[in-house]
Amino acid sequence: MDKTLHIVGGGMAGSEAAWQAANMGVQVILHEMRPKVETFAHQTGDLAEMVCSNSFRSDDDEQNAVGLLHWEMRAANGLIMNMADRHRLPAGGALAVDREAFAQSVTARLRTHPTIRIENSEITTLPEDGHWVFATGPLTSEKLGTAIANETGTDRLAFFDAIAPIVYFDSIDMSRAWMQSRYDKGETEEERTAYLNCPMDRDQYEAFIDALLAADKTEFHEGETATYFDGCLPIEVMAERGRETLRHGPMKPVGLTNPHSPDEKPHAVVQLRRDNALGTLYNIVGFQTKMKYGAQNNVFKKIPGLEKASFARLGGIHRNTFLNAPTLLDNQMRLRSRPNIRFAGQITGVEGYVESAAMGLLAGRLAAAEMRGHPLPDIPQDSAMGALIHHITGGAEAKTFQPMNVNFGLFRPVDGLKGGRRGRRDRYKAYTDRAKAAWTEWLTKSQLDATASV
């Protein structure tokens, strides 16, 4: 029997799956079609390249479900979190990274692993035998997507992810902008000044909304539909939902004081976050867009402080493919019709870098354990990992299934705790305490089971 685990896709999920499986003693071949077969969103052939944002979001493991997922991945010797910590940038309470150095480090670590081989080849079919993990993400190639659709008997489900623009720092007018994290959040001065802020008064905001609504947008191809994931809406789509939507979303003016005009409260604020260690690049937070390039230049230069901005990258839009996982995958992430195949990452219906890497971590461990003849115990549902995998493999409503970020709404209630906003802090702490205990116990039991079977 073939004891090699084949992993298709070298993004967050595939990279983490390869690392976890190899460290459990199995031979891994990681198939990544780049750079031989390119995508419009990727710029390099590196593994784990970040194409949308350089943020892994909140790192708070006591009050935030994403931060809790960070904690669980670190506890499981996760490669993605290890490299993220090594290349982190100031971002207030968030975990942001130097995306280029991060991807290069992940690539180097996997290339030098003694039981991992990387092959730059495109896989276009679902193999009949062998052990496979498909982690091809939102940019699954057309041929492979067709093969998956033919096998599952369902049409591919799609939404569009939009990419935020990146600005050169030295082109920003700092006489109008300033550095501050909302509510001065962070333990160091660097963290408390992690975001660059561009204020707008009411007239500037209204003119900006008018320009957004009037701007030329990317046209969809015939037969495509624009069903967006609410966590990654293009700004012009948000503006179409109401003129105040952006002011209560990525442009909210709360927790900030403009040192250039401390007595004037901004009507709206555009925030930018550092995108590399040198501090030469900043991405516009929450500004994913499907505007055409010329329109982006015109509209974004209406933002105070960005009138003379030079863009290292303008925004873009791409199609995201995902499975109706509750109907197609079992609780081991295996395709029910072909149990030799597992899926991981965004294609399973999770959304976000962290969630994708987490599902890769589980898929790699589950596959390696099965190959070695010691299946792992069930993932504890009270952990963040367990809450997420339970949701995508059966907890979600299949008829309305859409991509999901990890959040405390996926967690089982803790007995005796109040609901509502007033009890939220105690409730979240109870969730994270319970999750950490469950995850630690599972890791320990998994290691003991593995040792006993060798």
UniProtKB/TrEMBL annotation:
InterPro entries: FAD/NAD-bd_sf (IPR036188), MnmG-rel (IPR002218), MnmG_N (IPR040131), TrmFO (IPR004417)
Function field: Catalyzes the folate-dependent formation of 5-methyl-uridine at position 54 (M-5-U54) in all tRNAs.
Family: Belongs to the MnmG family. TrmFO subfamily.
Domain MnmG N-terminal: 5-374
HAMAP family: TrmFO
Matches recorded under SUPFAM superfamilies: FAD/NAD(P)-binding domain
Protein residues bound to FAD: 9-14
UniProt EC number: 2.1.1.74
Name assigned to this protein: Methylenetetrahydrofolate--tRNA-(uracil-5-)-methyltransferase TrmFO
Subcellular localization(s) per the UniProt record: Cytoplasm
Essential cofactor(s): FAD
Pfam families: GIDA
This protein's record includes keyword Transferase: yes
Keywords from the named record: Cytoplasm, FAD, Flavoprotein, Methyltransferase, NAD, NADP, Transferase, tRNA processing
Top enzyme category: transferase
Substrates-to-products reaction catalysed: uridine(54) in tRNA + (6R)-5,10-methylene-5,6,7,8-tetrahydrofolate + NADH + H(+) = 5-methyluridine(54) in tRNA + (6S)-5,6,7,8-tetrahydrofolate + NAD(+); uridine(54) in tRNA + (6R)-5,10-methylene-5,6,7,8-tetrahydrofolate + NADPH + H(+) = 5-methyluridine(54) in tRNA + (6S)-5,6,7,8-tetrahydrofolate + NADP(+)
Organism: Roseovarius phycicola
